[in-house]
Every structure is written in C-alpha cells, then in structure tokens.
# Entry
Amino acid sequence: MSAMAAVQRDARPSPSNTSSLIQVLPSGGACGAEVRGVDASKTLAPQVIKAVRDALVEHSVVYLRDQDITDEQLVAFGRNFGDLHAYQVTEYEKPAHLPPEVEMVSNIYIDGKQQGALGAGEARWHTDMSMFEFPSSFTFLFGEIVPESGGNTRFSSMYRAWDTLPDDLKRKVRGTYSIHDVAFMADGRVRPPYTAEDVKDRTQSPGGRHPVVRTHPESGREALYLGRIGFGYIFPYSVEESDTLLAQLWAHMTKPEFIWEHVWRKGDILIWDNRALSHARDALDPTRPRQMHRITAKGERPFWLGNPRLKSHAY
Ligand code: OGA
Ligand code: MN
# Structure
C-alpha cells in the first residue's frame, strides 16, 4: 500500500452543524469540511460570515461547491475575512483585466505565455507567504477549470503534528524560531534580485523569522509552523543540527494520518487557514488544463504564547 492510500478523503459523517444559517459537513479526517448553503457571489449577512469563519477555524480548510463568481465578487467575498494582499507574482504576465488582489494558478499556456503561477509543476509542502513578516491567514482558490483527475490539493494539520510530536523533539523546538527563506524559489534556484551572496550564510538568509511552534490567534491552540520543505534554518542550532531537526519535523508533519486531500470540482471555492496547516500539490499533467483564481488575506505576525497566562510574545 502506498503512503498516499492512507490519506483521508471525505468520509462524510453526519453534519456537525445543522443550524439554519449554513451546513458544515466535516471530512472525518484531521482537517477539512464542506460548507453548504453559501452563495459567495452574494452579499452575505454578518452571521453567515461568522458561521463560515467558525467552520474554517474549527476545520482549518473548508470548501464551497458549485460557485459561480466573478473576480470582483471573489474579492468582495474575501474581504469578509480580512484585508487582502495585492501583490505581484513575477513568474507569469498577469492579464490586465484582473483586479490587483487576484492572482492566477494555471498550467495553461496561450501563445507560449504562462497564464498563471505554478504551471504544471509540483508544489511541495509549504505554508503561504510565510517569507514575509505578516504571512497570509487565509488563502482562497476558486476552481475555474478543473481536470477530470489529478491536481488534488493536500493539507496536513499542524495542530495534530504538534500534539503528537515526540517529547524530545518538542523540547528541542519549543520556544525557538526559524528563517522562512524568501531568496529561494520553490525549485531551489535563487530568486532575483537576490544573489548567491545573500544566501551564503544560511543563518543570515533573508526571509520571515517566525516561531517554530505558534499559538493560533483564534483557536488558541499550538501548531507547528515551518515555511517550505527543504528550506529554512532553526535558531540557535548549528546549520547541521538545524537540517537534521528540519528533516525530522517535516517527516513527522507529513504523516498520512494528519493529511486530508481535496478532490477538485469546477466551481469549488477552497479556503484554508495557513496558521494551522501545511499544503502541497503533485505535479500536474500539462495536457489537462487546470486554472484557479487566487486571493490571500493578510494575517497577523505569528506569535507563541509559551505560557498562556503570560500575555506577551515569546520572542
Ligand atoms: C497556492 C497553492 C496548490 C494548488 O495557490 O498557494 O499552493 O493545488 N496551490 O494549486
Ligand atoms: Mn500554496
């Protein structure tokens, strides 16, 4: 049996929340739920937004099926969950008609031009935008073009990963912080305008400095928090010790029992909480078109309340 065969998909037990506002159907796995009863293209009542947010904080990743939404409506929906990033991804030429908050994730090429980020490549385990001081809280992906199979997105619960981490590893990383490299692209090349000189000393690399164990600002739970598999450095260890620790942590964080996998349908809006999850995607079949519209909400600076009774940051 391959490791992936043990990954949980929708076991679909009965709804945990049958309030008249929305329905929440937990996946039965370590994270994930379907939310029914929401048309994201409409202006939503504050109680509905709160119910969706509660479901999101409880299950860390939720999806809405059968949505029909313009980019402007997607932006309006996202704003219910926080300020949105308006940023530039340099790996493709963004179509002029897109609002500044919307990015594309696409494996489609038109006239030799890539239509969105990631292409058909693999997205190895990571959390979004953590190379910055204020990473994204939530990421929203709207499935505009979805292949019949392939291109599932996997999520691993960083609460479960922390809760089950062996005590010796807990002792080594509790209260430490790490570098979430900004100067490397996912494929390991140095990201312009950075140079090899900027990353020569890995203990000084540019990027976010965040606690390895963080307190979730809404649930109050502790979660492991690392940037991207294969990168990073944990203070105050030597580079060799840090590499060993990172390898042990990632091996634990990506165990099948913490993972739930979203199988896409056209019209899905998938929303995930980067403060509680890592996520990944396999390489895509380049001949099967897949195109997503993406927005991200700005989060707070990650913190750790080492002792919940002490209301101060640990670093
Ligand atoms: C992202 C991402 C995965 C996917 O947009 O941040 O990781 O399945 N996408 O496209
Ligand atoms: Mn991502």
